[in-house]
Amino acid sequence: MSDIAMIRAAAERLRGHARRTPLLSSPFLDEIAGRRVLVKPECLQHTGSFKYRGARSAISALDANVRDRGVIAFSSGNHAQGVTLAAREHGIPAVIIMPGDAPAMKIENTRALGAEVVLYDRANEDRDAIGARLASERGLTLIKPFDEPLVIAGQGTTGLEIAEDARALGIERADVLVCCGGGGLTSGIALALEADAPGLRARPCEPEGFDDVARSLISGQIERNTKLTGSICDAIVTPSPGEITFPILKRLCGPGFVVTEEECLHAMALAWARLKLVVEPGGAVALAAALWRKDQIEGDAVIALISGGNVDREMFLNALDRFGDQI
Amino acid sequence: MSDIAMIRAAAERLRGHARRTPLLSSPFLDEIAGRRVLVKPECLQHTGSFKYRGARSAISALDANVRDRGVIAFSSGNHAQGVTLAAREHGIPAVIIMPGDAPAMKIENTRALGAEVVLYDRANEDRDAIGARLASERGLTLIKPFDEPLVIAGQGTTGLEIAEDARALGIERADVLVCCGGGGLTSGIALALEADAPGLRARPCEPEGFDDVARSLISGQIERNTKLTGSICDAIVTPSPGEITFPILKRLCGPGFVVTEEECLHAMALAWARLKLVVEPGGAVALAAALWRKDQIEGDAVIALISGGNVDREMFLNALDRFGDQI
């Protein structure tokens, strides 16, 4: 259902809309990692995360008469902002269902971009049920955060860019570390790399305690997280990999990485100092793995994707306070 | 002496070395500015500032037997790092003369990249004299920070990229606001725009109290700053525009902008929140002018260059503490 043709079609629809992010690097990061580190900074994407790609891909592919009734999405904040901006660009309404404990900046930004925001309790309410009800009441189209081929295709455009830029840098074999929640981005990138850069291998990265994808890849079947709250990596905490994304991950990805929250905060401080990037905790897991899981990585170079930069000031100051002098 | 042919030749020498930075934007910045704001983030350039372009341009153009003896530069930190990295890439030694009050991170990074760093007193010593003596003693080639055609040509490659990307965005007439010290970057961009985007006009931006270029453009002759210390915008404080840069600025630039240090800190906080960029105070003057000098800007869009992101933690925290809740 998801394939490279869908990704290339999404890339056409996104042309002139999604931002073409570069690959960044720093000799200081290379030194820590013991190999060449290339960073794909999707925190520089519109709305501060890669989520805009999938949202615009899905919304732009809807029939106009369906699209005009509006869209609905559930999200801790990055998918929310991506869907809201893509909806605004199409001149249609967006309703966003967000957990009440999402970073304040994400909630505020989503509202400021024009969405109607509905808050729910992440621990006790089923966001899918809330979304389905509102969608049916108002005739809205649900834009799923990851388990949707058009969304996977949009996220996969990131992989096309990685393949192209890695080739230009002479990198033919390398692990591509991807911050992974439900697996939409990772599966999309894996499909793109399979087609355009078969020597590059996608590998999902997660925070300790929320490593459903890493465990699923080990067991060969979909595993679930035992909890869904309590992580600073809010952007990439989901119950489990998706029914659509997991078979792709299983077929194409290398083993997953698990990093600690401390390592995420340290990676945020290094991204601040060495890349001049603002990264959110969940967006830093892949960079953390690239820097501090060197024995689990193969090759002379590693590519790490930064998935987003929508971080509250308090959390960002925490990272700089703790690790700003260890750069 | 400096012309578009030199800039195009520098672009060829920099191809595959200098980073091609994108144009970024945020609807939140557009709203503040009252027009479309495009940001050219040279904080993402190698070594965290545009200075790498000019340094690599100059060093790569030297005769190999001259180059092999090494290079010397004086700089508050950004030119220092650019020259050091470009020298390292060519396998040659670099001696860098830096003011003792330069941000600690800049001094440390310059040393870590492999330079021999010589500190001097910005208020009481003549860095030109120190540089000339060391250069003659060791046979080093002096890489001037701005008043050198090969350096201007390298910085001007930024303007070629702005012209190309503005055209792709449909922007035909706009002011291009540039953080300006001695005028190497501004004059290079002005020359590039004259050739490739004659509807775009470069305009220098400076901090209050160090507005030698703005005053020089008004009087029509080179004016000097009355002081050279006491600014948080260390990166762009120079005594006066250069003998080579000023005639170019005078011929091609629109009037200069002067912003306050408070506005620079506020722009840094906005770049953190809205662009996910780490910007140093001197690198934020053009963004500050784009946001808060709207009556002095012409056109529906404005392009603001961020010149660098090499900021100490204390200064960065200061910006977020003061303005992180005014975003």
- The string of secondary-structure elements of chain A, in order, is HHEHHEHEHEHEHEHEHHEHHEH
Q: Kindly state the mean pLDDT of chain A as a whole number?
A: 95
Q: From the 3D structure, determine the CATH topology of the largest domain in chain A.
A: Rossmann fold
Query: Total domains of chain A, how many?
Result: 2
Helical content of chain A, roughly?
Answer: 40-55%
Spatial sequence of strands, sheet with the most strands of chain A: 1-9-6-7-8
Greatest interface by residues involved: A-B, 32 and 32 residues
Task: Determine and state the CATH class of the largest domain in chain A.
Answer: Alpha Beta
Q: How many DSSP-defined strands of chain A? A: 9
What is the global morphology of chain A?
A: globular
Number of helices of chain A: 14
Through-space gap between termini of chain A: 44 Å
Q: What oligomeric state best describes the polypeptide chains here?
A: homodimer
Strand content of chain A: 5-15%
- Which spans of chain A of ≥5 residues are poorly predicted at pLDDT below 50? none
